[in-house]
Design brief:
By secondary structure, the protein is mostly helical. It has six helices and no strands. Helices cover 71% and strands 0% of the residues. Helix 3 (58-69) packs parallel to helix 6 (97-125) and helix 5 crosses helix 6 (97-125). The termini are far apart. The model has no long low-confidence stretch (mean pLDDT 84).
């Protein structure tokens, strides 16, 4: 295997051989520094420098609850622009007790609303 020493080769010799191989194709520490700078510049260009790990705030959670109250399902909500990934959404439900309680209340309201409307209609019709 290429990531293991050859038969009879020491680990030190293997490491030196790998370093020589990387130097031969231009993968030097300077190359890694250039790549890091390139990735940072790309991130800056694509995101405006925002740290994407912290963009989902209480405002995002409130928008999710509003979408649930509007009758949208999880898949529809996740596909909306500016919403977190599905894994993040379910992690929030698991970890954040307040968010989970608000989400469950919103789902309950959406589920019960048609029943209450039907009962009101029956009451008005006098049946």
């Amino acid at each position: 295997m290429p990531w293991e020493p050859r038969k009879g080769e020491s680990w030190e010799d293997f490491r030196e051989r790998e370093r020589a191989r990387w130097r031969a194709i231009g993968r030097t520490p300077e190359y890694r520094t250039r790549r890091r700078k390139w990735w940072r510049a790309r991130h800056e260009r694509l995101t405006g420098g925002r740290d994407l790990r912290t963009t989902h705030t209480d405002e995002t959670r409130a928008r999710i609850i509003e979408a649930v109250l509007a009758g949208k399902g999880v898949v529809e909500i996740i596909r909306m622009p500016g919403m977190p990934r599905c894994e993040t959404f379910y992690r929030w439900l698991k970890v954040d007790e307040d968010f989970r309680r608000r989400y469950e209340q919103a789902r309950f309201i959406v589920a019960v609303e048609p029943v209450l409307a039907a009962l009101d209609e029956l009451k008005r019709s006098g049946r």
